[in-house]
Structure formats: structure tokens, C-alpha cells
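Deliverable D5.2: sample structural annotation.
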Amino acid sequence: MFKNVTIYRIAPGWDVTLEAMEAALDAARFVPCGASQDKSVGWVEPRGEPHGPLVESVAGQRILKLMIETKSVPGSVVREKAQEEADHIEAATGRKPGKKETKALREDALLALLPQAFPRRGATWVWIDLANGWLVTDASSQGKLDELVTALVNAFSDLSVTLLQTQVTPQTAMTQWLSATSPDEWPGRFSVERECELKSGDEEKSVVKFTRHNLATDEVRQHITEGKLPTRLAMSWEGRIGFVLTESLQLKKLTFLEGVFDDRASDDESGFDTDVALTTGELTQLIPELIEALGGEMAFGAAPADAPAASGTSSGQAAVTAVGDDDDPPF
């Protein structure tokens, strides 16, 4: 269900009944793209049963599912069709269309071609934990996160959320953990595993990636001494969940390790309730411990004092990759 985790803090005081949530989401139920429509965003049944509820409550946790459908036409095809119409106009009138008319021709070409485009769908899971004040989603790209927050705010006008922020930035903490000379210096029940990415902040923007590789080495510590900072680090919690922590406090490549789902009831046909209960049950233990390992949570809407500037990847970036055995996983 969740392969990635991005955590939002819900502003204090927000509470809504299941009935009110259902009514709000029903007004924005997903409808496939029309013939000339390039995008459609709406809510679908989390359990996958047609005409079922749009909000599922399992073990006190609320689960939603946002569907995004897009249709696109290659720009070269649009330009080619618009050029054909421009050539026709020139042949008939003896004049070439101007910039404004050419733009209109391309817009018309796109509308004409959209009905022939194949739609693509992508779903985003949402978990709302009102007891802890969290809104958790598996969306990881900024585009999907923006779509999700917009859809939620449109549905619930009194909802206010902000990305969860900690007193210590993930990058600062990851630097400390990779610099440790003993596992005793790792936080709580977390372990550093065998995947990380380090980036330098200089003009070269060099990148070093370690995959399926022992990170408790002088080589890794030397890179950090030279000024490279971690942007991704594979970790595990209690031997039950593996994930890659990012500098923006996202958990990627979320993996429930062997044994976590062994207690799934055999009579649960869809497995939905069991998956939700086990997934949220594990994460409600992991998230507070991760927050504690990062120095505790900042006040709602605040930003950490040591937050680094966003780092990008330039086309001239140097890269070094250290890779272990292909059959050796990072967790």
C-alpha cells in the first residue's frame, strides 16, 4: 500500500466526522477525462469496490485514495498538425499566420488530437491519523504532493497542513550517523543499512552513491570529512521496516521485512483491512521514534534553524558509484 511516506502535520483543532468527510469527497468523486480534457483529479473507493465509500475507517485510521488521470499528445505531433493547417492557410490566402494565430492553431490542434490520446492513471494513498494529528501519503514527487494538498484543501476548506519539521534536519542527523564509529551511536532502534548518496556543495556538485555496500567504513567518513553531505540513507527500524530516509524527511523504498505480515488472517479475502491495520500500526510506532531521533518536532509551521538550501543536480555533475553484490539487498 505505502511504498513511500511523506508526513504532514494537521493544524490543531481540525476534526471531522466520517459522514462529513464522505459527503465532502463525494462532491469531488473521480470522473474520467472527457474527450478534450487533458487531466482529471478526483477521489475513488480505497477498497476498490464500485460505488463504495470514499473514506475507509480501519482500527481508527482513515484511508483515502486520490486518482489522477492525464492525457498527453507529443509536442512534435501537435506542431506537425498545426503546421499543416498553417500551410493550408498560406496556400489559400497567400499569407503566413502570425505568432498569435500560430499559437491558436497549436491549441486547436491539441484539442483535436486529445480524443485520440491514451489516458494514464495514477493513484495516491492518504492516511489520516486524527489521534496523532498526521496526514501521511505515499506521494513522493512535488507535483503529486501539490495535487494532493490542493484536492484536500478544496474538499475540506478548514483543513490546514504543513510538512512535518524536526529540530534537527535529516541531513544533519544522517551526517552524524554515517560519521559514527560504532553502531552504539545510532539512534534508538534504528540501524544504518547499505545504501546512501552523498553530494558536495561546491561548484562541481560531485555525487557519490553507495549501493549494497557497507557504510561503516573510513571511505564513507572521508567523503563526509571532505564536505560531501548525505541526501539519502538506507535505514531499518527494529528489523521490521526498511526505508531510505531523504534530506526532505521522506521515507522511500518502504519495505516491511520478513515476519511483519505473518499474522494476516487467512479469511480476509481482500486483505485490505489487515494491510491497513498492520501498516498503520507499524508506522505509528516508527514515526514518533524517527521524530525523536531527529531532535523532536518543530512547532506547527516553523522551519528548522539548520535547514540547508535545496540542492540540485547540474548537467556537469561528477559522479562516483560504489556497488556491492547484485544479490545483496540494502536492508
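Annotation notes: The two ends are 19 Å apart (CA to CA). Helices lie at 18-26, 75-93, 99-113, 142-155, 170-179, 218-225, 272-293.
The annotation will be released with the project's public dataset once the embargo ends.
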